[in-house]
Amino acid sequence: MKFEELGLKPGLLRAVSSRGYTKATPIQAQAIPAILKGKDVLGGAQTGTGKTAAFALPILEKLSEKTSKGARNPRALVITPTRELADQVGESFRDYGKYLSLDIIKIYGGVKINPQIANLRNGIDIVVSTPGRLLDHLQQKTINLSNVEILVLDEADRMLDMGFIKDINKIIDFLPKQRQNLMFSATYGNDIKKLAKGILRDPVSVEVTKRNAPAEKVEQLVHFVEKNQKRHLLAHLIKDESWYRVLIFVRTKHGANRLTSQLNKGGIPSAAIHGNKSQAARVRALKSFMKGDMQALVATDVAARGLHMEGLSHVVNFDLPNISEDYIHRIGRTGRAGKSGIAISLVSSDDKQYLKRIEKLLNTSIPEGNVTGFKPVFETPANNKSTKGNQNRENQTGKSTKNTNRPVKFKSKNKSMGAFGPKPSGPNKRRRQSA
Hints:
alpha/beta; Rossmann fold; 2 domains; six-stranded parallel beta sheet; 15 helices; globular
């Protein structure tokens, strides 16, 4: 279906066309007419299916029918689980609404609150926010949600995983009873059903992909490897298969910092993003990665949602996630917008229980990949004083103890190099995380 057939204003069609889109995706073709009719919607769709436009375009259409300037309260509220997702959803609203007279603000933590307060005083039509910072504004009475006509819960399953359910309920208490509610989720479990039942009123169900299923064009592979060889195998794969940009997921913040340091020492320019990083540091790391100045981005699950990375070919699960559904969101960073991608999981004996749960969720086994040319690297402990003896043995045997898997030096993008290489290229405990 073409966008012209959806009944959108010329300004919106012009903005959509400027982004190179002519045909609506299945989620857009089903959700946009329902939202324009004022229906509550429960949407099930993977990342990379055009989900953001599916709610942003009709919201912009509806709010543009009545506009005003000066001090005014927001009429649409979009809640997301992470800063990165809030930032990208906010930018999408601005891009699609650039020919309309509507004001959009992004509200999240990790940055100063005073500029946000000043913008709110000037009058806002659409707020895109994380739960924590929005509650800060509500407690300080710097935002008034009494005029909200449309509420969107984006990546609702992730918000539940991060322990935001109490925050969401607190926010809803500040909203008018009569409003339109939209909820989007990539996975659909009992918790989502319960949340939807409490918020949505006679919703239209829009589901364009099989529930709890990964993106169809993502090839999934596992490599079984000893835990102490994971980073060496990762470096070997990056070098041997010429991965120019790879997103790597780890389980902990400390693990992200440690792996980033190890990759940098091995000649692979890398950066880490996680909840302990300031928003400025996270933005810098993402920009460097997207520009091609960084070859690897190491992230905790704070980045599993909302990171739109055009053309990202590889995602690596250095650690498998504790929550099986997070696996789907992680690998959804690749294989977006109809393009293919590869998701590789490095599985040690400690990870096998998580792999079993993931395969049960997917209702399929993930095939084992082939690795050629990799030799395990056994390092001498730093406090071992027999270095000289090792050197003598090397001289006697004629064999080097150097790490032959060390990746070659990565060169930053230049005129002959693009960001993707040579230019044509049991129960899980939940707790609130920082957003």
